[in-house]
Amino acid sequence: MTRRWISLSLSTNRPAAVGLRLSCVLICALLFGCAETVKTFYPPKAIIHPEFDKRYTIWDGERVEVNWTPSLRVEASKYLAGNDRVLLANSIHQIGLRHEYKIAGKGTPLVVYTKNPEQTPEERHYPTSGITLGITAVKEARPGQVPLLKLYDSFDPVVVRSAAGPDPIAANYTATLAVLYSHARKVAGSSFASFIRPDDPRFATGVYLIHPYDPNKIPILFIHGLLGTPLSWQNLTNDLCSDPKVLEHYQPWFFLYPTGQPVLESAAQLREDLQATQHLFDPSGSAIASHHVVVVAHSMGGLLAHTLVSDSGDALWNVFATKPLNSLKLPADVKDLILRYFFFRHQPSIDRVIFLSVPHRGSVLASGIVGSIGNRIIQPSKAPTRVLKELAAQYPGLLDPYYARVNATGGPTSLVSIAPNPLLNGLVNLPIKVPFHSIIGHLGPIEGPGSTDGLVEYYSSHLEGAESEKIVPAGHYLMAHPETVAEIKRILEENIARGRRSFKRAATLASKTDFESNQRAIPR
How is 380-444 classified by DSSP, letter by letter? Predict the structure, then answer.
């Protein structure tokens, strides 16, 4: 009887049932696209207890003298000294990352994990789940003296370049990332809560680094999409951070934001947080490499990225409202919010953007029944909701009809932002000031015009003027597809080739300064 009743209910209320099913499919697809939590396993003997902050320690049962090489910069060295756990990297087994990368050579790869004390402004830009270092310990015999134990940062260019030489230094890149991600379960689990309650995210919005800041390396800023977190990039990061050509020149940065917010609110936070992070780690602006950022953005994150590399003028405001902003008398805080959201200039520190499955013209799945049901579970952000209400109340007829309806139905959300709408039409027409690339997925036999990745149509992802457009036989979550990885590596190598002269000059100057600072921090 129960089964018959359910069947009758679905048949007599088909539109609602279809909408509910589609909403469930959408949410499940989005959650499926979020990264799985990495798990690590290791035997008790994988945990060792050297005293790296002392001049001498015991290594393999022998007294050795500790030597911190210049590859260990000051920002990393303090966590090496105050670690919570040291693990033998090659004894760690992981589930969750598709590939494992290590370099055979001299020395013993280690993973050093320490809790994030979050005492300094810099530490607030490292994962709250902990700081993980990849270290290689190389013991060198010294006739008539205590052996020397040299400690190298496995991610430093010195170690990376050694892999191509006759005397490589051993490294295990995947083990380091696996330990980092295995401690980040709460971050992975926070995406849905931040989606439905964007004003109350479990983790602070901002730019995060997973390795200690390196002034010689170019940031790759990863911007996740709807219901994502930085862990959405974990397999791609593993593939990139194990490639010597990439690792020698780049460092991964990540922007975390609550994805239930309207796009323009998240985009304003991105612009402000990126500038603040750059100023924090490089207050003098002398680290030239850090001001040649490459952005890699997926899905809705690409809409945020577009605002980093374009000038709005009054184009977005004009499709949103029928009167010039300077003709309106508004409370100061409301006007400030409008200026933050609608008016921006491109950031000169961005050199290049790679768009992955971005709905530049919106996604039809975010509108209609699916969007309607999805918007019911999102609690709209208070600040942009107040802007809408204030404008509608003081100036009836001011808002574009689309946003007048949004105001009447509760307020703006991310789903409202990525449904086809006038603001997206305005944003997609803003010229992009830097070289950019598109990587677009397709399902089924159709490729190019008329195709879809399951969530976004090709016509929405395609942008004229791209330096390259790569069509990948994959769905919307194509970040770790082999063809995607290969294309991103190609673009990153091309980016280095074009700017090699200035980057080398920057690296030489920064290395000298950092070496001198590091020598003062080495334990004696």
Answer: --HHHHHHHHHHHHHSTT-B-HHHHHHHHTT---HHHHHSS-HHHHHHHTSPP-S-EEEEEE--S
